[in-house]
Fold this sequence. Notes:
It is built from seven helices and six strands; from the N terminus they run E-H-E-H-E-H-H-E-H-E-E-H-H. By secondary structure, the protein is of the alpha/beta class.
Amino acid sequence: MIAFFGGSFDPVHEGHCHLAEELQKRFKFQTFYFVPAKKNPLKPNETHATSKQRLEMLALAIAELKNPVFKILDWEIHRDGPSYTVDTLRKLKEQSSGEISLIIGNELLATFPQWKEPEEILKLAQLIIVRRDPNSPVPEKFQTVDVQALPYSSTELRSKIQKQWENGDLAVAPQGIQRSVWLFVKENRLYCR
């Protein structure tokens, strides 16, 4: 079984890593792919760090997890144009014999019908819905996993980092950022405006 965990990872944070580790404990995936999107078609102006920088931060974060099952699938980063999950799933299905599990947060279910070829996605992969709030309604046809999520979001972290740049207070990483990722952020002056 293969896990497909997509996102902008801008920046990757401990919430992403914690979720991956929790899901790996429960499902024992043969391979757990982090799939950074080059450009989310539903959020065209979303990324702040470059694709290469986001890829490097992800590699640093995964290295800290010390689990060979965790890997990066960088096809979307190197593809021209927007990133469509269905295209990546098709290619992955062609090259892998295992069943694919697509991991998405329950907050994305509302926009799922707007994704490119949602019905085809459901044929290519089993959806695992991560329910951060156990009271969130999820259609019965989907497998749900309740995970106690860590309280971090990339949007909030970018805002905190920007304030730290403004205050010249870079000695300590904001909570939720791994040390190696924080050093990379500082070295590359990311999120300073």
